[in-house]
Structure formats: structure tokens, C-alpha cells
Amino acid sequence: MKVMVVGGGAREHTLVWKLSLSKKVKQIFVAPGNAGTARTAVNLDMSPTNLDAVVRAAKENKIDLVVVGPEAPLAAGLVDKLQSLGILAFGPTKEATLIESSKVFAKQLMHKYGIPCAKDAVFTSFQEAEACVKKQPVPMVIKADGLAAGKGAIVAQSVDEALMALSDIMEKRVFGDAGNQVLVEECLVGRETSLLAFTDGITVVPLVTARDYKRAFDRDVGPNTGGMGCYSPSTFLDKKSRDRAIKTIIEPVVKAMAQEGKSYKGVLYAGLMLTKDGPKVLEFNARFGDPETQVQLPLLKTDLLDIMMAVIDGNLAQTRVEWSEGACVGVVMASGGYPGSYKQGFPITGLDKVDPDILIFHAGTKSDGRKVCTAGGRVLTVVATGKSVAEAREKVYLNLPHINFENCHYRKDIAAEEG
Ligand code: AMP
Ligand code: GLY
After folding, report:
1. In angstroms, rounded to a whole number, what is the distance separating the alpha carbons of residues 242 and 237?
2. Which domain holds residue 356?
3. Could you give the residue ranges of the DSSP H alpha helices within 282-383?
4. Which ligand 2 atom sits closest to the C-alpha of 288?
5. pLDDT, tens digit, for every residue of 166-192?
6. How many whole angstroms from 282 Cα to the centroid of ligand 1?
7. 98, part of any domain
């Protein structure tokens, strides 16, 4: 098969790498990819949200299967467009992606079907939202309805902070139309974790668990980022809690989406709070996680293409999905200054100096044919596998110093509490 992966981050590089290990995959294209994907795949210079360009490229290159990484093209209807042309696509349709692209839709669905989540109120008027916020206990959570690159939820510690968030979203419109509706939510207390599952719209097959680190600096301080590292399996979510979350959250939501005529096929990502009353949903994502993918797929023993085809064909119940017993740790190397402003264009050295079993997944990188340079905030995810999390962690941190670029920053404490 000829496969095309849409996206240009380390998640997409990991998808390219894993798919390239399938005997059934003849050639891979990536839109747009990065310097890492260019080694095994053909990079196509286009934005993932330029649907016409992506669809045209899929037709021109006679692609059999398109795998969509990020949420924006899913929410814009890329999968629907491809399907209407008879091109197979892995990922939910535009309507099914509402579970991520509209937090109001997701909450209404959960309330209707009794899926555990935070209490909330929805507003379209600033004055009404303001009146509600003034009566709420703190902390409370203010959320923009639509996609906001992970920045649309504000946990407000005071009424003033909540009012400021409301004003930013509804008056200053910092997230544009994504702020047409706002949720004021009860603040849930507990340990946060994520749970991902493949689903063909009926059968649910969980991925190995993973824990990501969102804050920029060690000991979880500093601003939120797209993710600075990850390890798998997560000791946060034991088998009992995981099975409970599958039964009370993932399976019912997949059933609910089908009943609503929005059958969900692809990977469903649930952000959960493990409260004293059991797991509750913080949010859903309609895609693989980043950096979760970088530590989950190295542990997948089954051919990823077979799983994707089973999801598309509705055969997941007949497919065995196997994970290795080991563990995996991934550390993100970022440009100093990220997630704020940073400089790019620095040469990256030592990519060939790491141990042969270390995996390097590129994100913001560019190659001029001779050298690889930084070209974004998150530059690489460096990944090691081992018998235990502690072993994988030791390996990855022994190898990281070999790789270098000016003003490089990475966390030193990824998976540290697992030691
Ligand atoms: P979201 O984009 O909805 O996942 O929110 C981003 C982050 O905000 C989550 O990872 C949580 O840390 C926090 N958060 C969101 N909703 C709540 C809530 N209801 N209670 C407590 N924390 C929340
Ligand atoms: N790691 C968080 C996300 O992919 O949304």
C-alpha cells in the first residue's frame, strides 16, 4: 500500500516510522513532514489544513490510505473529503471530531448519556457568564468551546482570574470564533491521566497507558507546553482504574456517538481526572497524543497498518492488538524559550552519536541536504525502550548529551518518580 501521513511533528514521524516497519507498506508520503521523515518518506510541502492540496496530493500519488495526525484537518473535514473520493482515511469524520472540536458538544453528550464529568454551565453572553462566575466557588475552570491549540482551558484560582479569562475569550476574542460559547466548569480534584483507545465505532481496544509532562521545567513548574516528555506504561493508572474508565467512559461514549449518528472511528484520547468518586472526563481528543505516540508505538507488537485497516473496515473485534512487556521513555529536546519566543535555524549535531537502539523522532527540524537545523519550538523526541521505566530512563538520559544545538532545553526529570 501507499500511505500518506498528514502532519509534521514527532507524533507524525513516529507514525511514519511504525508504518514503515509494515511489510504491506510500499511507500510513505508525509504532508508536510520534517527532516526526520524525509529519510524514510517523501515530504510534501503543504499545510495539513490546506485540504484541497492534501486531497490533490493523495490523488496524484495514488495513495491507498491517509493517516491524519493533528486535530485541525480532522475538524475541517479532511477524512470526509477523502472518503467521498473513495480514498481510505484513518481518523474520525468532521461530525465525529466534534467530540474534540466542540467542548460544549462533548459535555452535552456526556450529560445525556450519563458519562462522568465536571458540572458546567454554557454561555454565549458575556454578561450572563460574568454573573455566573461571580457566584461560583473557586477554583473554577473557564473553557472556550472550540479548538484553541491546547490553551482554551483556564483553571482560575480567583473570581478576578476567571473574569479575566472570560473577557479574553468573549470580549477580546483571543481564540476567535472558538470563543463564541464558553463553559464555566466545576474544578475536579485528583490525579490527572490520559487513556487512549482504538475504536471502529463498536469495539474498543485500549492502547498501553502513558503519562505526559506538560510543564516546561523540572518539578512541573513553568508554563504549559505541547508536552516535554512521556513514559509508558503509566503507573498512575493501574489495571483496575483503567478497566473502570474503559467501562464507564470510553465504551459508553463510543456507543453514544453511534447513537447520535456520529459513529467514531480512529483513536479516541480521553483526558481524565481520577477523583475520589472514580475517573471523570476533562476532555476528549480525536487523535493520537503528542508525545504519547512516541512512547506508545515503540511498544506495539502488532502491525499498525493491520490495526488501522481493522478500524476502517469495522473488524477490530477480530484483531489481536499486542504490546510488549517493556517500557519506554521519551524526552523532548526544545528550543530555549519555548513555549514563548525562541530562535531557530541552529545546526543539530550528534544525531548519529547515540546508541543504535535509541529512537530519535523529529518535530521542528529542517534539512538543507547537508545539515539538519532546528525549525520549531519542540525539536526532537529522544526515546529509549527497556525492561522497566527506570532502565529506559537511564538509557535515554545517557544518550541525550550526545545531541546538541544552541540554546537547547530539555527536562531532566521525565519518569524520575518511577526510578
Ligand atoms: P482541557 O483542554 O480541557 O484538557 O484542559 C486543560 C487542562 O486544564 C487539563 O489538562 C487540566 O489540567 C485542566 N482542567 C480542565 N478541566 C478541568 C476541570 N474541570 N477541573 C480541573 N482541572 C481541569
Ligand atoms: N499530550 C497531549 C495531547 O496530545 O493533546
Report:
1. 6
2. 327-409
3. 292-296, 304-313
4. 4
5. 999 999 999 999 999 999 999 999 988
6. 5
7. no
With a 6 Å cutoff on the Cβ, whether 283 touches ligand 1 is yes
Q: What CATH number is attached to the domain comprising 152?
A: 3.30.1490.20
Secondary structure of residue 10 in the 3-state scheme: helix
pLDDT, tens only, 49-74: 999 999 999 999 999 999 999 999 99
Q: What single-letter DSSP state applies at residue 139?
A: S
Residue 185 CB less than 6 A away from ligand 2: no
> What is the whole-number distance in angstroms between the Cα of residue 389 and the centre of ligand 2?
20
343 to 101, 348, 364, 411: CA distances (angstroms): 31, 13, 12, 19
In a domain, 205, yes or no: yes
Contact criterion met (CB below 8 Å) for 308 and 84 = no
Backbone angles phi and psi of 5, in degrees to 5: -105, 130
What DSSP character marks residue 359? E
User: How far apart, in whole angstroms, are the C-alpha atoms of residue 419 and residue 386?
Assistant: 13
The model scores a pTM over 0.85: yes
SS3 16: helix
Does any domain span residue 185? no
Contact 48, 55 (CB under 8 A): no
**What does the alpha-carbon distance between residue 333 and residue 362 come to, in Å, rounded to a whole number?**
10
